[in-house]
Amino acid sequence: MTRIARIAHADGVSHAIVEPEGYVLLEDAFATRVRHTRVVVPAAAATLLTPVTPRTVVGMAHNSGPADRELPPQAFLKPAGSVIGPGAPIPIPEGIGLVEAEAELAVVIGRTATGLTVANALDHVLGYTVGNDVTARDLQRSDPLWFAAKGFDGCTPIGPMIATGLDPDGLALGLSVDGVDVRGASTADLARSVVECLVYVTSVLTLYPGDVLLTGAPGQTAPIRPGAQVAATVAGIGTLHNTVTARRTAKEVVR
C or N: which end of the chain has fewer Cβ atoms within 10 Å? Predict the structure, then answer.
């Protein structure tokens, strides 16, 4: 297994292989043959960013358990601008009501993917990272399109890095808020596997290198509010940490 991070360092922003001695910079993380530059950036001299900057983020709806298998596959889009990285604040808009965190496996696309099949779907995956599909529940209930509920700025934390070479079908998922764990689960509990999700989504639209597919939250979700410390974990990948903040309104900004 290889771990790939995207970092800010003295010379810019780069993808890099995570090694004990630091980050080994890559020429192109999405190349058919990954090439190292042999430049090593010490961990203390680097800042972790979102592992990718997707043009498209797709989430699977109603994929959290066996009962959802009775429904046809469904998906929704999240704005690329809602993506934030490890350590970034999750800014909850004022008056939005109940907001919950959802720990999910996030699939990172490595090769242009359209019309995938069961046989070739995983060939188009670069690797996997941790996703937190932050959702405003009250808004979700009032809007069947989920635009505001799952589309506000900062509601899609992903990271901390990409893990390659994993079997995506039996990974443990965990979520904690302020150090308190909620009931976890496994990607094996999803109604549809990663392969099935990829086949469905790419039958509708093309996914490009760096795009992200959120696969669903089979575990317990957890309410969050400003000040909370949120940690989402996927076994074999790592833990994504974010702090919840209150997003100031336009009126407050003017003052």
Answer: C
CB atoms within 10 A of CB 57: 25
88-106 pLDDT, tens digit per residue, is 999 999 899 999 999 999 9
pTM above threshold 0.90? yes
* Residue 62 burial (CB count, 10 A): 17
Classify residue 255 by burial, with Cβ atoms within 10 Å: 0-12, 13-18, 19+.
exposed
Residue 87, burial from CB neighbour count under 10 angstroms (0-12, 13-18, 19+): middle
- Distance CA(63)–CA(60), nearest Å, equals 6
CA 4 – CA 164 distance, rounded (Å): 8
Measure Cα distances from 214 to 3, 86, 111 in Å: 19, 16, 17
- The domain made up of 3-48 has a fold known as SH3 type barrels. (2.30.30)
Provide the β-strand partners of residue 100.
Answer: 135, 223
* CATH code, 57-254: 3.90.850.10
CB 177 within 8 A of CB 101: yes
Give the pLDDT confidence of 49-68 residue by residue, as tens digits: 999 999 999 999 999 998 89
172 alpha-carbon distance from chain centroid: 15
Cα–Cα distance for residue pair 34/38, rounded to 1 Å: 12
Domain residue ranges of the chain, discontinuous segments joined by + = 3-48, 57-254
